Amino acid sequence: MAPGSSVEVDGNLTSVSNFVLLGLTDNKELQRFLFPIFLMIYLVTLTWNLSLIILIRMDSHLHTPMYFFLSFLSFIDICYSTTVSPRMLSDFLRDQKTISFTACATQFFFASWMALSECCLLTAMAYDRYVAIGNPLQYSAIMVPAVCKKMVTGACGSGFLSSLVQTVPCFKLDYCGPNRIEHFFCDIPQIFSLSCSDTFIMQIILFLVAMCVGFGSFFCILLSYGFIAASILKISSATGSLKAFNTCASHLAVVILYYGTGFSVYVQPNSSHPKKQDKVLSVFYINVIPMLNPLIYSLRNKEIKEALKRLIKRAKLYL
Fold it and tell me: Which of 211, 217, 222, 292 is nearest to 252 (CA)?
């Protein structure tokens, strides 16, 4: 058992009461070097996403379905990063990286909730782009505020239920030791592999969630983009085709980054790639992607740039 860990003895059964997160590295000098880098990433993530939410809320020109979904994507990214980053940062400065059984379950539940909700939200955003390009004349009639709110509620609700279905049975398993998690946060593949119970049912649950939410949402996104591509090909002018493609280029880039790194970690067999590679990829989709998403949506977006200019002009009037 690792230093700083504890167990509770019940008859002949030894039950783990906390886990030890091994983190990104056990090199203390490297940990001190990484701390300001990840602190900066976290602060930039909060600043950019919160600024985008405020800008969308304050500018009436951005009160459209696409930006409504984008504001919730930023909110999810803030929650997702906050679930993991503060704990990760504190562990860089601590010798004992123990986390209680309850705190570990809570961290995984919220991280999984946000990750699965983002999958569903990206699917809703893909459908929004399909309607905008495939049925532009009916767009305002189809994507009414009530429908958009239901889609966001459905995305968050699906993520909540899917996370709950994974978390409860996983943390109902018996854990008799060892209690060392080969990661910088409580991730379910590393957790249930430590169980001394039969994990067959747990593996079935993980497979079903991955198929229904992970691959299901990815398939719906691919289907939407298939229809989008067909609609773009019907546009006779090159300028019109390019304009239609530009409306979904940012979303497509986010989908490729998010699903590409996610599938690289969770789809491949554990024996096919080292745990260090898993950690690097996890850093990318938990820490880096939430920071990049608002930047990806803003760089080539004229409407956001114009909204920012209007906000600056408005601010100057009050100064």
Answer: 222
d(CA 319, CA 317): 6
How many other β-carbons are positioned within 10 Å of the β-carbon of residue 158?
21
pLDDT, averaged across the chain:
88
Amino acid at 96: Q
DSSP 110-140: HHHHHHHHHHHHHHHHHHHHHHHHH-GGGHH
- pLDDT value, residue 5: 46
Those residues whose C-beta lies under 8 Å from the C-beta of residue 265, and which sit 6 or more positions away, are 278, 281, 282, 285
The answer to whether residues 88 and 185 touch, using CB atoms and an 8 Å cutoff, is yes
Q: Are 88 and 35 in contact (CB under 8 A)?
A: no
Q: What is the mean pLDDT of residues 76-82?
A: 96
Nearest-angstrom CA–CA distance, 248 and 60:
21
Helix (H, G, I), strand (E, B) or coil at 50: helix
The pTM for the full model equals: 0.90
Judge whether 201 and 104 are in contact, CB under 8 Å: no
The pLDDT tens digits of the residues spanning 271-290 come to 445 577 788 888 998 999 99
| Whole-number Å distance between alpha carbons of 122 and 168 | 26
Cis preceding linkage at 169, omega within 30: no
HSE-CB at 208 with a 13 A cutoff on CA atoms is 11
What's the CA gap between 120 and 161, in Å, rounded? 12
Contacts of residue 96, defined as CB under 8 A and 6 or more positions apart, other chains included, come to: 3, 4
Count Cβ atoms below 10 Å from residue 157 Cβ, excluding itself. 13
How many CA atoms does the CB half-sphere of 211 hold within 13 Å? 6
Q: What is the pLDDT of residue 2?
A: 44
